[in-house]
Amino acid sequence: MELALITGVSRQQGLGLETAKQLKNKGFEVIITARDLETARQLAAPHDLKALAIDVRNEQSIAVAARQVELDFGRLDVLVNNAGGYYDQGGTVLGTDMEYVANALDTNLMGAWRMIKAFKPLLIKSPNPRIVNVSSGAGSFSDEVFGMAVNPGGVPAYGISKLALNGLTIKCAREFTADSIKINSVCPGFVATYPGTENWGARPVSEGAAGIVWAASLQADGPTGQFFRDGKVIPW
Ligand SMILES: NC(=O)c1ccc[n+]([C@@H]2O[C@H](COP(=O)([O-])OP(=O)(O)OC[C@H]3O[C@@H](n4cnc5c(N)ncnc54)[C@H](OP(=O)(O)O)[C@@H]3O)[C@@H](O)[C@H]2O)c1
After folding, report:
1. DSSP 88-99
2. Largest alpha-carbon pair distance within the chain?
3. Domain of residue 122, CATH code
4. Which end of the chain, N or C, is less surrounded by CB atoms within 10 Å?
């Protein structure tokens, strides 16, 4: 049975839990992680998922979790970097507080970076290791709906942090070819993970998660170093 680990699973309506449930249905063993262990445990129990604590901004918490996965499983097949935040909707470059920018980068970029560093030794023990960075069209230059060269709307801190996350995807893909690790960015689309957003056009969480699950389930000869939505390449 393949093993997947997902970060940032603290909410019933979040993409993380839905991704975990879909992977479980496909036959994966799934570890969900959240900053608060009890929260992760409560979400995990009804779906027969495992739970661990991880704060992606805290290297020590990541190291403890990686050690536990090593002891319990000895390898990891799929890492889903889903933890994220700092949605500065309506924000502007000049109006954004620099501490907020630092927090966005520390979570959305460096959180995934720390996870990849800590879990790579376990990933290379898998016959088909995959990493999925949950990104956003807001981090694309030219995505026709959300891209920053197209959409005049806000989210400067969030968008630039996801742009940087996409850069991490590209750099890792180049570095990891010898290890056969596939790493891709996935935009789930605008998804109704918060109440009321469906009224603004957000789509069901299950549809957004399906694109993450698709990238998590790639075969050994699948693509790497690309940006996808719903299994289709979208522009950086
Ligand atoms: N919903 C959308 O339309 C959409 C569109 C594009 C991309 N995305 C991306 O999809 C991912 C999931 O988002 P979501 O919509 O499901 O919303 P969400 O509930 O806000 O998901 C983010 C999760 O990350 C966790 N998190 C934040 N900081 C963390 C940290 N330092 N360590 C560990 N976990 C942390 C949050 O947990 P806490 O409770 O601990 O804060 C939360 O569970 C995010 O990366 C988001 O940027 C979402």
Report:
1. -TT--TTTS-HH
2. 49
3. 3.40.50.720
4. N
